[in-house]
Amino acid sequence: MNPNTDWIAAVTFDADGLIPAIAQDAKSGAILMVAWMNAEALSETVASRRAVYWSRSRKRLWRKGEESGHVQTVSEIRLDCDGDVILLKVEQQGGIACHTGRESCFFRRLDGQANDARWTITDPVLKDPKLIYK
Amino acid sequence: MNPNTDWIAAVTFDADGLIPAIAQDAKSGAILMVAWMNAEALSETVASRRAVYWSRSRKRLWRKGEESGHVQTVSEIRLDCDGDVILLKVEQQGGIACHTGRESCFFRRLDGQANDARWTITDPVLKDPKLIYK
What we know:
Helix content of chain A is 13%, strand content 34%.
């Protein structure tokens, strides 16, 4: 029996064979992070229901949480109209998605008007990264 | 008086001078769409508080809603830890972000297990695109 891979034909990978994937907290709706997937990472995510990305810096599969323990359990996978962005709804183990020890990677907010705008860090560090990555 | 552009120095644009921007409904938390911005689009978004993207197909600024009327009023702008993804919290005029006439571009959900997975359209068309783009 051959696995049905028609579903992956609807996914448009870029020139590097990658597609951005948004991880959204399934309960709160908070956007936790954006990372990249290749076809293998996406297929493994579908099969294992744990988020697997492609690390562009390390050039290898990155099973989210493999070092930190901050695994993402995937409850839903969505695709946008152009087929070139993936959305994962996840349960974030440990409540920390960001390597800085914060819940979300989007911890900076632009404050002020156009002529005096600046980024404000709005979210607390929940765990010291030194304790996350030993 | 020179405008302060230090904030834009924290933004990492890719080799094409672009950064992906996620539009999230500020109230419901629904992810509406992902599009691209160049520095000009981002600056204009900050100044006008209306989402302005860079259309990769048309190779010009795309003031969201310029044809459809489906303007996005921006209440918050966030940046991720690597500085290479923008998150906009928006009020979506008309309740439709997608060119297909749906609320969100992420209207396909992957159902089934790995060996029989398929995309299911889960969201209704709220307005016929023929009536949106005349």
